[in-house]
């Protein structure tokens, strides 16, 4: 891993007073397995993955990271660099309040679509080695630019009795997600071939409100349900009484004719050919 970062001062200010503009340069890059937005958990502490925060070389950051290993957690400030489009003054939370409107004020949410696309995540520190900080419970995408890292101090940062506003009125729709043998074998093969954990993504997508077609690509079939993840299809069945889902199998969304066509907008046709056992 090599961080591709500018060897420049981290912040440049333009203009005078509070209205002046600032330009910030990333000091590190996050490396993890979540490559697309739907791979990332809503909150890292609930279902986040492991990763590495790699700091830029030749900036004396090795010294700046000294003594960090004694902390259990750290705050990461980062850029939502994959977001496209403009922000809105209201946002629709992934779990809506049980009563009232389904949209709330943006600044009362953690929506990634913000006037300044800056994210904040509290990660668990696994180790500090040179310019790399190994972390767990991260909700960042692979390649995310990191602006700063600060230690988490429980005495100053933890307020467990604080009111959480509309979040306290959320209507939970949690489901247990299990895997059939066929699905488990297929997911393990895909992980070995290309490093993408499709099982983790499926659990993330389906563990809450699995049938909400406004937030995920789910459709009902004669056998049960199908979740679409880019060009893969995951068949699953539901047991409403037990609030349990079982992932049955993985299918390719490409036809044989599709795979014979040289056009490859997602760059994944070779993986699907391998998955289906098709030789070019």
Q: Nutshell version of this structure?
A:
With 280 residues, the chain is of the alpha+beta class. Helix content is 17%, strand content 31%. The protein folds into 2 domains: 159 residues, YaeB-like (Elongation Factor Tu (Ef-tu), domain 3, Beta Barrel), CATH 2.40.30.70; 101 residues, 2-Layer Sandwich (YaeB-like fold), CATH 3.30.2310.
How would you describe this protein?
- The protein folds into 2 domains: 11-169, Beta Barrel (Elongation Factor Tu (Ef-tu), domain 3), CATH 2.40.30.70; 176-276, YaeB-like fold (2-Layer Sandwich).
- It is 17% helix and 31% strand.
- It has helices at residues 44-47, 61-64, 154-157, 181-194, 198-206, 256-260, 269-276; strands at residues 11-14, 21-24, 28-32, 49-55, 73-79, 90-91, 104-105, 118-129, 132-138, 145-151, 176-179, 218-220, 225-229, 232-239, 244-252.
- The strands form 4 sheets. A 6-stranded antiparallel β-barrel has the order 3-4-9-8-5-10. The chain has a 5-stranded mixed sheet with strand order 11-15-14-13-12.
- A hairpin with a 4-residue loop joins strand 12 and strand 13.
- The protein is globular, with a radius of gyration of 21 Å.
- The mean pLDDT is 85.
């Amino acid at each position: 891993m090599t961080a591709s970062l500018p060897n420049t001062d981290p912040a440049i200010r333009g203009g005078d007073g509070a209205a002046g503009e600032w330009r910030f340069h990333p000091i590190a890059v996050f490396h993890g397995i979540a490559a697309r937005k739907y791979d990332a958990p809503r909150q890292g502490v609930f279902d986040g993955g492991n990763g590495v925060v790699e700091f830029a070389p030749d900036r004396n950051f090795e010294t700046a990271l000294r003594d960090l290993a004694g902390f259990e957690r750290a705050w990461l400030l980062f850029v939502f660099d994959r977001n496209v489009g403009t922000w809105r003054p209201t946002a629709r939370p992934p779990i809506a309040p049980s009563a009232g409107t389904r949209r709330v004020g943006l600044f009362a949410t953690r929506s990634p679509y913000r006037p300044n696309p800056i994210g904040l995540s509290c990660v668990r520190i696994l180790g500090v080695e040179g310019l790399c900080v190994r972390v767990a419970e991260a909700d960042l995408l692979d390649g995310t630019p990191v602006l700063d890292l600060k230690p988490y101090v429980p005495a100053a940062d933890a307020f467990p009795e604080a009111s959480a506003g509309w979040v306290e009125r959320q209507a939970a729709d949690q489901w247990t997600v299990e895997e059939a043998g066929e699905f488990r074998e297929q997911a393990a093969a895909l992980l070995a071939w290309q490093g993408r954990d499709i099982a983790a993504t499926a659990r993330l997508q389906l563990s809450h409100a699995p049938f909400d077609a406004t937030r995920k690509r789910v459709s009902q079939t004669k056998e049960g349900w199908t979740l679409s993840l880019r060009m893969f299809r995951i068949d699953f069945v539901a047991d409403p009484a037990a609030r349990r889902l079982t992932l049955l199998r993985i299918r390719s969304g490409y036809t044989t004719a599709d795979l014979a066509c040289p056009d490859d907008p997602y760059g994944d046709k070779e993986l699907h050919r391998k998955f289906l056992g098709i030789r070019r």
